[in-house]
Specification:
Rossmann fold, globular, alpha/beta, N-(1-d-carboxylethyl)-l-norvaline Dehydrogenase, domain 2, two-stranded antiparallel sheet, EC 1.1.1.44, Pgluconate_DH, gluconate utilization, 310 residues, pentose shunt, seven-stranded mixed sheet
């Protein structure tokens, strides 16, 4: 099974699985690998059954399946896991081989990895992947950056699987160093702002105007037919009117605490470093921090009940 695969992908969570199936649909042979190898067997027996996807039980075996220059893409948790996999891959690869990080890594980490891999003759790429699980399966937006020598070897795959707008792939080389992950970071930061605006619109409609869920859903549906047309407005319209099995609106049952993976915070930090005012994104991050302080907010409400209805 040597020299059969066009690319290998490490990390078989849903995003990884869907990217593999997307690549397969576009005629590329993919070798799947996961740290817990039983997940490889399960993927081949279920989601990838009947496809040309192949699996590997070790990194050594994975590398042996690859055509040269070898292309290895990782979709693993940002931080330590990325560096650990790089350390394991370096001894197995040769000069000119390519390592791609498709996770949400900090752009400074990506810039460091580009330099470290270059010293060992390897080409490192940090690529933003946008569109969620559905996008990964049917067409994501891809933002590759890093060592430019890698682009000719990954361009056919990336531009084939990417979403298309006006006939053009939603993917192009965005720059050297950590540029790919910087663009994805800012992209996510903008989404933080979009979601905060949606939350504040919901709050005003519900608490100030006394609108019901169906009525609010209709407003978002109208907005989605104009210049505010977007994925986030569209799903908000659906979420607001969705009812649980008991007939009550599900959104009213959801705990009012928002988590975050870090990209919005990193955008705000970068903006401070570069002296660029992105106040909406900064306030959106602070709102998420505040929402997570459930116990503190409960105590504060006993002392500061807020304005009475007028």
């Amino acid at each position: 099974m040597s020299d059969k695969a066009d690319i290998a992908l490490i990390g078989l969570a849903v995003m990884g699985q869907n990217l593999i199936l997307n690549m397969n649909d576009h005629g590329f042979t993919v070798c799947a690998f996961n740290r817990t190898t039983d997940k490889v067997d399960a993927f081949l027996a279920n989601e990838a059954k009947g496809t040309n996807v192949i699996g590997a039980q070790s990194l050594e075996g994975m590398v042996r399946t690859l055509k040269k220059p070898r292309r290895v893409m990782m979709l693993v948790k940002a931080g330590k896991a990325v560096d650990e996999f790089i350390d394991k891959l370096v001894p197995l690869l040769e000069k000119g081989d390519i390592i791609i990080d498709g996770g949400n890594s900090e752009y400074q980490d990506t810039a460091r990895r580009v330099e470290q891999c270059a010293k060992k003759g390897l080409l490192f790429v940090g690529s933003g992947v946008s569109g969620g699980e559905d996008g990964a399966r049917h067409g994501p937006s891809l933002m590759p950056g890093g060592n430019p020598a890698a682009w000719p070897a990954i361009k056919p795959i990336f531009q084939s699987i990417a979403a298309r707008a006006n006939g053009e792939p939603c993917c192009d080389w965005v720059g050297e160093g950590g540029a790919g992950h910087f663009v994805k970071m800012v992209h996510n930061g903008i989404e933080y702002g979009d979601m905060q605006l949606i939350c504040e619109a919901y709050h005003l409609m519900k608490s100030a105007l006394g609108m019901g869920n169906d009525e609010m859903s209709q407003v978002f549906e109208t907005w989605n037919k104009g210049e505010l047309d977007s994925f986030l407005i569209d799903i908000t319209k659906d979420i607001l009117k969705f009812k649980d099995s008991d007939g009550k609106y599900l959104v009213e049952k959801i705990r009012d605490s928002a988590g975050q993976k870090g990209t919005g915070k990193w955008t705000a930090i970068a903006a401070l470093d570069y002296g660029i005012p992105v106040t909406l994104i900064g306030e959106s991050v602070f709102s998420r921090c505040l929402s997570s302080l459930i116990d503190e907010r409960a105590e504060a409400s006993k002392v500061l009940p807020g304005p009475s209805n007028t």
